[in-house]
Amino acid sequence: MLTSLLLVLLLGSDAFIDRHVVRDCAGPNLDQALVACGRIIDVMPHSARQVAFAYLYRGRAQYLKRDPEHAIADYSKAIAIDPRLAEAFSERGSAYLALKRIDLAIGDCTQAIQINPSNAAYHYNCGNARWHGHQFDNAIADYDEAIRLQPEFALAYMNRGLTKAEQGSTQAAGLLP
Question: What is the residue extent of each domain of the chain?
Answer without folding.
Answer: 1-83, 91-177
